[in-house]
Amino acid sequence: MACDSLTAEEARVVEVLLGDWRDLLRCTAIHQAMERVGIPFSHASRLRIAEFLIGDGAANGLMRWAPSVYVLTNDEKLTARGAVRLWRQGRPIPQPDDDEWRKADRNADQIEHAFEMLAWLGFMRKTAGRYEIAENAESFLRGLGFYFHEVVLPARGERFNTNCASDFFIMTYAPARERMLERVTGGASSEAAEGMSEKMRDAIRGANTGGARALQDSAFYGAERAILNDACGWCDEPITVVMDHGKLVDVTPDTIWYLLGGG
Q1: Are residues 110 and 202 in the same domain?
Q2: Is residue 194 very low, low, confident or very high in pLDDT (cuts 50, 70, 90)?
Q3: Which of 8, 12, 120, 168 lies at a 20 to 30 A Cα distance from 222?
Q4: What would the pLDDT profile of 73-127 be if each residue is shown by its tens digit?
């Protein structure tokens, strides 16, 4: 798909995404870039942008994770996680108009769009008018899978996803950043490779970066307020962590545990 197939606003969304992805700690999704450009979310527009990104060489070089990481909204990732749990339990997947989704405060259009994108990506398929999990679904659960870790910078009016929850502290807490840089420059980056995509490992090591900046040149937000919007890896309960000028000022709920490399 050629860039001239996009509207001017959609082309600006692509510019924002490519700019963000040059920072190794940012894996901004399409819906977040649309918000930053100032256009309302549109499923049709998102699909056009996704088709362009997947067919564009520069974008492919900077996308260090599977397309689902960038194409799905964070709410749609939660929907996918719910579908995965049912699938693993051998239970049928509720269809978009089923009451189960309404009980979770999600309307049929939202679920239809989520399932349509999951089918477009290949995680789902539609057979005889019903959505079901595709045979190769396990491949979508590698790497980041359907998890997200959203960073909000209120003073800048920006939000973007990062690779893992620990990256939030690397970009907001100087001692964590210094420890990370010591490990990387000391050749210890291979120790943290489990769960990473090959492209992410290469970028951290400075090989085949696709135009991304070195990890030590990633942005730091320790002199401002930053918020992490996350969700429990087991129950999807919302989790919020607030850092303000390098200090932890709020954690909700206050009973959360963070397991490095595990959720």
Answers
A1: no
A2: low
A3: 12
A4: 999 999 999 999 999 999 999 999 998 888 878 888 999 999 999 999 999 999 9
Q: Which residue has the tokens 């995680």?
A: 123
The answer, yes or no, to whether residue 14 has pLDDT greater than 70, is yes
Number of domains in the chain: 2
pLDDT at 65 over 60: yes
Mean pLDDT of 197-224: 87
182's tokens: 């010591």
Contact present, 45 and 10 (Cβ < 8 Å): yes
Domain ranges, residue 82: 74-141
d(CA 142, CA 163): 13
Q: Are 93 and 133 in contact (CB under 8 A)?
A: yes
Do 244 and 180 lie in one domain? The reply is: yes
CB 183 within 8 Å of CB 192: yes
Residue 158: beta bridge partners?
A: 153
Task: Write the single-letter amino acid at 189.
Answer: S
- The full DSSP string for 207-250 is SS-TTPPPGGGS---TTSEEEEEEE-TTT--EEEEEEETTEEEE
**Distance, CA of 151 to CA of 153 (rounded, Å):** 7
Residues 133-139: contacts with CB under 8 Å, at least 24 apart: 133/83, 133/84, 133/87, 133/93, 137/84, 137/87
Q: Is the dihedral angle over the CA atoms 85, 86, 88, 89 positive or is it negative?
A: positive
**pLDDT value at residue 223:** 98
- CA 33 to chain centroid: 12
Distance CA 57, CA 50 (A): 13
Contact 74, 28 (CB under 8 A): no
